[in-house]
Amino acid sequence: MFNARSIVNKICELHDVLYNASYDMYFISETWLHSGICSGLLDPNEQYTVLRSDRTVFRGGGVCALIHKNLRIVPVNFDDEFCDVELLSFDAITGETRVRFFVLYRPPKLDGDAVNYMCKLVKCLNKYESKKYTNVIVGDLNLPKINWVNYSAVSHEVYETFLTFVIEGGYCQLVSQSTRDSVILDVVLTTDPLLFTVVETDMPFATSDHLSVRFDMVVASGRTCLPSLPSTSSSLSLPIKYKWYQGDYEAIESYLFNIDWYSLLYLNPSAQAAWNTFMSVLCTAIDINVPHRKCTRSRPRHFGHSSRALSKCTAKKRRLWHYLKCNPYDSRAHADYHHCVQQWRRLVKQQQASTEEHIIEANNLGAFYNFVNKHQK
Q1: In a 3-state reduction of DSSP, which class is residue 37?
Q2: Where are the domain boundaries for CATH 3.60.10.10 in the chain?
Q3: CA–CA gap between residue 277 and residue 261 (Å, rounded)
């Protein structure tokens, strides 16, 4: 999750992050996107489902979510009365587990319009939050004067309206480190904090003045006993590959022979319950007697392999950021990091330009139109 402060002029940097990292979801606030920029430009390699809520009145703002297509999602549509709220929502479904995500951005104002905006935002959240499943709210609230330790804030209607919603809804703020200067502007709010194993700040996206926030979630995912299906519990729903040729099938037969099937049927009279119990027994027998391993998800990369210079610059940028994080008042460290970021951006754009030049010089009309069409969807 990060505040991009415009991805319109950072498309190449966004591609580098999307196709050279291993995250399943990206949540972006302050996208500055508009109707003139199609979603195909954001993900020309078509690896992600792109959801957007662009600001329509004037420049700036907007939110976007990119969810890897290995994950099943269902977008949540809002009523027209909330069309001017910079907010989007979707359900992520893994097996029998469903998590409702909200991605939001609130402009940094505290006037009368800001009060009305916050009231409408809270009204929308109240209306569409799930009453049955876990809710997760991420984004940039621009509310620096909330004390998230004791859930208190300055006496202002904007602050009080949102904080009342958080407390009454049973939400927990998981971001404990400052995300811009010395304050927390970006939030990860959830009704079930036990789903999260890691929540920490990370390098800013490109030249953004906000730190990004990285978090890992572990959700249960129902599975059947077939190869290359999700395991019972995995933060990334990694597939399992069974080594069937090494299985002990006599042991499986013995295990199933000793099951009291009549008792199981008696205790599970409905067809669905009986089927679930049968599959559970069968899965257990296979897990015990067939060797298996979790497979990493193979993802094609848009850029292919990064150039040696870009890889070295990326590693250098991370090292400088870690040093800067430990020495925030070192002016030389600030200068070195920002210089490295600019160098990294130049190399990313050069690599993108090299890819486009290669397509043109190949004199392959089909490849050229395929490249263009992917950017226009």
Answers
A1: coil
A2: 2-219
A3: 10
The crossing angle, in degrees rounded to 10, of helices 112-128 and 157-169 is 10
User: What pTM value is reported for the model?
Assistant: 0.76
Q: What is the secondary structure of 141-161 as a DSSP string?
A: ---TTEETTTTEE-S-HHHHH
Q: What is the token pair recorded at 263?
A: 């008792």
What token pair was written down for 136?
Answer: 């997760």
Nearest to 133 by CA among 98, 165, 167, 168: 98
Question: Each residue of 32-80: pLDDT tens digit?
Answer: 999 899 999 999 999 999 999 999 888 899 999 999 998 999 999 999 9
Residue 251, helix vs strand vs coil: helix
- Could you read off the pLDDT of 142-189 as tens digits, one per residue? 999 999 999 999 999 999 999 999 999 999 999 999 999 899 999 999
Sign for the CA dihedral angle at 245, 247, 250, 252 comes to: negative
3 state SS of 323: helix
Domain 2-219, CATH homologous superfamily name and number: Endonuclease/exonuclease/phosphatase (3.60.10.10)
Read off the DSSP letter of residue 284.
H
Residue given tokens 């591609």 in the structure block: 15
